């Protein structure tokens, strides 16, 4: 084990699995973190565990939250339907403050571990328009992290790494394929069933399918 440690947010989807592979390729000892936050299905948590095991991370941690307690998203409130067509503006699949909360908890674990790097798989090119996926958000959170922590105040600052930020979904698939990511282990669908099979209709399914097609890579997604 080296002193080069990183905490990586791992949702179980295509993007975050690719980020783990990138961090490993960069020589980091990887500690992955997922969240049981009241999302529609547990299939993504099971996918995250598969990915973490397959990639040999040092430790995989699942944190329980109750974001469905505040609702406001189709991913945490079963009374709000997941849209099957892309609309205008920020979609109802946006989960209020999700990445802010997730990164905050990753920051806490990183400080405990002595890790100085936190990876997140946000993307500002092929994405659904979420405000907490923008470069401005990542930069602002990094500034906050170094103001709000003992490590930051003592000069052992944190870096928030978003290596997929400006990549197309096709570029992400190509990068992960080169690094040996087994995308059959991942789940991207907003409303996958208990077996992890995808709907093939939601925005996340559409972006994933388009990415594989544009990359010229066979999509291993199973659909219901």
Automatic annotation (TrEMBL):
UniProt keyword terms in alphabetical order: ATP-binding, Ligase, Metal-binding, Nucleotide-binding, Queuosine biosynthesis, Zinc
Family statement drawn from the similarity comment of this UniProt entry: Belongs to the QueC family.
Residues that hold ATP according to the record: 10-20
Binding site for Zn(2+): 189, 199, 202, 205
Name this polypeptide is given: 7-cyano-7-deazaguanine synthase
Listed pathway(s): Purine metabolism; 7-cyano-7-deazaguanine biosynthesis
Keyword hit for Aminoacyl-tRNA synthetase: no
CDD domains for this protein: QueC-like (cd01995)
